[in-house]
Amino acid sequence: MDFTVMSYNILAQDLLEDNMELYRHCRLEVLDWDYRCNILLEEICRWAPDILCLQEVQENHYDTQLYPALTQMGYNCAYKKRTGNKTDGCATCYRSNCFSEVSVTLLEFFRPETELLDRHNVGIVLLLRPLVYQGSKVSAKGSLLCVANTHLLFNPSRGDVKLAQLAIMLAEIDSVVKSWKAKGEHCNVILCGDFNSVPHMPLYQLITTGELYFQGIPAWMVSGQKNLSHKTDCHRLFAPLWPSSLGISDNCQYVTASEVDESHSPIVCPGGKLQYSHNFLLKLRFCSVSCVRPSDLQVIPGVTDNTPDMSSRKQPYVQRFGPIIRHQLDLESIYNHTLLDCNHSEVTTLHCEGGATVDYIFYSPERTLSSDQAAGGKFGSEGLKLVGCLSLLSGDALWSMEGLPNHTFPSDHLCLLAKLRLDLNAPS
Ligand code: KL2
Fold this sequence. Notes:
Order of helices and strands: EHHEHEEEEEEHEHEEEHHEEEEEHEHE
Number of strands: 19
Helix content: 10-25%
Bound molecules: adenosine-2',3'-vanadate
Strand content: 25-35%
């Protein structure tokens, strides 16, 4: 079964009006909501994705224009507005003749009891089962599809918050996948949205490699949106990134109360001082980041020209207790962030202050089964096969059409669109 997924930040009108200086280059008519809304719906109609993940969906526009139009086009929709006083949120829609809904979770990243999680971003995790048509008979069949959609915090200097928001998202996906695995069903994952982070930087690395060594990294570096290395008061990341009371492990999995790793939590001593365990403090002594020197480091003879002693990293406990966050989902990006000419970077968003890739569709890629699994009687393959995707454009190409938004593209983001193949005979 082939199906298409679109991820699209449609630029909420209230955010556009709050940040008008970003759209100085635009003709006024392309900033008008009704004008943009028409082009947007035309664009969705043209590509007719089977699954549609939208960000920056303003609640009043969703209620009065988008929801009615999308329903008319055959979509079922889930919507989650941001908490706090912002007026937009995320919407995930799917064609009701392609999928049936198994479950939906609306996630809020704002956690009043966790100081770090004080921002009002949200996410949606939807579990879908493909509908298969055989003659006139329709049946729900084949592997489940977990579709997660989010818009992470924008603030370029708060990578620590972005990582914690991502961890909540990953923990929710993990728990859906695990609970179905326990029932013997395999579940493929699609994670998409606006991550406000650029390719190959730490947040992206965590998603695509399943692992991030974060100790000592400056918070701005996590997303890489802006180089803030000139700031002297820059905040760095130290373990633990979030308190164990959040209920999420450094494997980005929910932990039950009995599993909470006490070694991470400091003991509060009389007088309010925090006391950390010996093991926890050992983790902080050596970190790879302390061996990486900034290229513009001022040379002080005998001090900054000394070569860091990498042999100290060979000490066994450095590997065993390194402050690392991980996740167990196997995720790959649909786009590789360079255009086919190899000379230009893809951009997914562009305005006066520049262009970048911050939007992604990640998916569970097809992996060939090991001979053991094959011998165990499993046939077919797990994972999704990438059939194709809609090309993005370079910043130069977009500036040659007056930047974003313009008469063709109604948002300051482009849509991402992928066609994927699901093996309906996959082992379950
Ligand atoms: O980068 V975005 O646009 O994914 O396209 O996500 C945020 C920004 C969105 C939601 O908070 O609003 C935009 N400067 C530029 N853009 C901003 C700012 C800002 N100070 N604040 C919010 N946004």
